[in-house]
Amino acid sequence: MNTAIDFYFDFSSPYGYFASLHIEKLAMQYDRQVNWHAILLGPVFKTTNTVPLAMAPLKGDYSMHDMQRTARFHNMLFSVPDAFPISSQHAARAVLWTQQQAPAKTASLIHTLYSAYFTENIDISSAEQVVRIGADLGLDRTALAAALGSEPLKEQLKAEVTAAMARGVFGSPYVIVDGEAFWGFDRFDQLEAFLKNGKI
Known about the structure:
It is built from 10 helices and 4 strands. With about 200 residues, it is α+β, with helices and mostly antiparallel strands.
């Protein structure tokens, strides 16, 4: 099998959500696996001296319209949640914990958390909601709840974000495969061409 696709995302990112619905299909089509990397954009914004897209003057209004349009164009369920954007550290920590404790459930957890937020208006910044969703998927409720507040898992997530930025990651979604980086769901046509041809 070819090298894996590194897929970086933040749970508060609509474009990360859109991309998450397509990345596995692309990976399967071109005999790849997906390495899921849940990150936090907050530290990235501080490093790049930027703000969340929806909060940026002029860009914000456009992006809110574009999110809805993109979802319609690709026939994806989507609605802007009441709480948007959110802090996504609990969801990201849950992904890290699941990758260690129940790796086979990682993708299901990611998809379920994203869907809860962007289709059901569930505020996944809440640790309680994250634990409930994880438990519904068969994860150990007590162990997950304890892990979300643990210092080792907090430090691990910080290290993951630092490592992501060291690789040049500055947004969500951000894909790296065979040394080539692609930022944004609107670059997935280029990503597919690269997977198909090995170059663009």
